[in-house]
Amino acid sequence: MRLAGPDGLPDTVAGPGYTPADHGTGIVHLGLGAFHKAHQAAATDTALAAGGDWRICGVSLRSPEPAAQLGPQNGFFTLIERSAEGSRARVIGAIGQALCLGPDRAGVLAALTAPATRIVSLTVTEKGYGISRATGGVDEGHPAIAHDLATPEAPIGVAGLLVWALKARRAAGVSPFTVLCCDNLPENGRLLRGLLVDFARRTAPEMAGFIAGEVAFPSTMVDRITPAATPETLAAAEEMTGFRDEAAVETEAFSQWVIEDRFPTGRPAWEAAGAMFVADVKPYEEMKLRMLNGAHSMLAYAGFLAGHRHVSDVMQDAPLAALVRRHLAAAAATLPPLEGVDLAAYAEALAARFANPHLKHATYQIAMDGTEKLPQRLLAPAADALAAGQPLGPYAFALAAWMRYAMGTTEAGEAYALRDPREAEVQARATGASDTAEIVERLMALPGLMPPVLRNNAGLRREITARLAAMRDGGMAAAIRAEAAGLA
Ligand code: CS2
């Protein structure tokens, strides 16, 4: 039988600690993927037990799958939490409605303009926004931005939809919603605010000052390692709950959410789920992006080429695991001290989370969208390390691994897609030369990627070139061993 509600679950599976039908919708979430379900929807489910009309209308902007999976289940889904101690399942009831923008356009627009909607949260991935990192405004070349600039009255992208909805609400005398970015971007609230203000300036100038002055964009640090669901996930959910569940997700037991407490029209009691409310999220964001995500990207590129399918396999490869720890320490060294946080302990906890053998997190999944991830994960800390006179080796190794990955063929000669929004450009630069130094030169010169202090640094270029040459000549496994042999 298909899961469709909280009834009939075995004692071992917790259902919602509230009666879902008694709670109205207060949140529209854009980007109805696995991470949203495992993180914000789970936290909201816990918070709903403390009361409030905060159920979620989940929207996917493109893929019809999430709504097709959740719709017949009335929004209910199984969340499997896996840790070294074991696995447990819970059924989440926080999602009251699941829509896809294409077929359900009227419903999505109605939800965005409904007075009851007080928060619009987002997980659309780094590339989903269409932010120009150079200007902080819109990237005119981004397909959804280009579409929405041309037809702002029929938006399909984040900036277009949010500006349209804020304008419609203002015209109707309805207070603006709070915009809550939950993607792994630095100062994500400020970044999204800059995007919307610039988009408004170009399409609805009277809205620009209103958005800048009247709309809240709290920044957040979000963390929960959540692999894409697989057929095994669905089979495990059925075994644990007794119900078929097309929308099941698996994740780790750990979850962290640090949020700036700026919600002029209210919010769920997310602290009930362990969320931390602070005045300034930036130090937490930097810690997480540079340590967790930076190490993740490094191990994904090096691990994928070395033949490791999953992050837990990487951590079984002693020399590569040593490089992961080196990377975590190097990233930590770029961070200012953060009260109440022991960065060495945080690094150890991350290594343990990466090693979780029960979580099948594919290196190929993390390797995706490199040009969108490198700036905040590897390049910003590398620039800080350079300024502080710290060694650049860990970053040179990670960037060389990305460049080797960008070449698009495994060591067995098998081609794979990079899955990067700048795929064609990156691959042309990575494969257009046979000389290693030239490949490095061409990739470092990718417009808008590297900050000039790094791009023009001959020392960094040499360090990357030596490592990429080792990876190409002797293979990734040997390059990893050689790099790790250099550790004290
Ligand atoms: C990962 C993240 O896919 C990736 O790029 O680094 O999704 C990571 O698992 C999460 O940020 C963990 O919170």
From TrEMBL:
InterPro entries: 6-PGluconate_DH-like_C_sf (IPR008927), 6PGD_dom2 (IPR013328), Mannitol_DH (IPR000669), Mannitol_DH/Oxidoreductase (IPR050988), Mannitol_DH_C (IPR013118), Mannitol_DH_CS (IPR023027), Mannitol_DH_N (IPR013131), NAD(P)-bd_dom_sf (IPR036291)
Transmembrane segments: none
Secretion signal span: none
GO BP terms: mannitol metabolic process
Swiss-Prot/TrEMBL keywords: NAD, Oxidoreductase
Domain Mannitol dehydrogenase C-terminal: 280-471
Domain called Mannitol dehydrogenase N-terminal: residue spans: 26-271
One MF annotation (Gene Ontology) recorded for this entry: oxidoreductase activity, acting on the CH-OH group of donors, NAD or NADP as acceptor
Source superkingdom: Bacteria
PROSITE patterns: MANNITOL_DHGENASE
This protein's name: Fructuronate reductase
